Amino acid sequence: MERLWEHGEYRPPWLWSAVEVLKNVSYPIICDPVGAGARRGPHNCGECDAAIAKAIRSHDLTQDPGIFDDLDCNCKVAWQKIVELEEQTFGTPLV
Ligand SMILES: [Zn+2]
Questions:
Q1: Average of pLDDT values for 21-49?
Q2: How far, in Å, from the CA of 29 to the mean position of ligand 1?
Q3: What is the distance in A from the centroid of ligand 1 to the CA of 51?
Q4: SS3 62
Q5: Among 18-32, 45-59, 75-89, which is the least confidently predicted range?
Q6: Nearest to 12 by CA among 79, 90, 80, 88
Q7: Residue 38 Cα, ligand 1 centroid: separation in angstroms?
Q8: Cβ-contact 40, 63 below 8 angstroms
């Protein structure tokens, strides 16, 4: 995986990115995580995909960003590193 990232290969978006978007918008937003965890859909490491997809669905109903505060996983650190790297490289995160 890390070698693919280094070479800038295409990868599906991270669920963490979707969570960040949902946490930061101030208007009602529905994020349909259909395909979450699937190979071609948005995904994280596989361990936390189901929990995050569930939180996103709950957020659709409650519009409560606090629902994401309890989410954490080892792969969140990896995702944050990638965001930083892409900010340095491209000036804007692509994930
Ligand atoms: Zn994870």
A1: 76
A2: 23
A3: 9
A4: helix
A5: 18-32
A6: 79
A7: 14
A8: no
